[in-house]
Amino acid sequence: MLRRGGGVTGRLVAAFSRLVLRLAGWQVVGGAPQAQRYVLIAAPHTTNWDFPLMMLFAAALGIRPAWLGKHTLFKPPFGWLVRLVGGIPVDRRLPGQLVEQLSARFEEQPRLVLVMPPEGSRGRRAHWKSGFYHVARSAGVPIAMGWLDYSRKQGGIGPLLTPSGDLGADMDKLRAFYADKQGLHPERQGPVRLAGEDDAAPPRE
């Protein structure tokens, strides 16, 4: 599940999403990554509108991404619906196992696009959460650079980054890419930096 949308339904969803974005004054830049499996990050994140807007951009590009949700959201009677729209349950009581759980998901599915917002909050943060990097590296999949730029009303998915294990060098590439991207509230944008970039061990968040 949660793969590039194909068939008539997928094309209709993509066309409708592009229409909604165009009517709202937004422009889709570029196309979808050719990879079948990757971690999709999105930045900058300064408003609650960022997530639904990024999901619209993904749909416009023919992508049906998976996203992480608190495990309690998946209980009856609506758990099936949450899964249907791409939700993956996460038990926050077992934080140390998150990387392993998500890595296993990638191994099980030949096509999977997993959204992992690195900032975690619309408020200014001193650093990004590092889970997206460790999941991608553990699973052996690239990181796709989703972006929104409110100053130009443009968005899309940039280049793929394959984690090399050199955290500082990899983050330098992310910093260079996001340097000119502006959120709705620029004053809330924090630095593109992970806590302890010299330590590549999976975090226990």
TrEMBL record:
The keyword Lyase does not apply. GO terms for molecular function: 1-acylglycerol-3-phosphate O-acyltransferase activity. Residues 182-205 are annotated as: Disordered. One of its GO terms (biological process) is phosphatidic acid biosynthetic process. Pathway: Lipid metabolism. The keyword Endoplasmic reticulum does not apply. It comes from the Bacteria. Residues 39-148 form the Phospholipid/glycerol acyltransferase domain. Keywords: Acyltransferase, Transferase. Pfam families: Acyltransferase. This is Lysophospholipid acyltransferase family protein. It comes from Ramlibacter monticola.
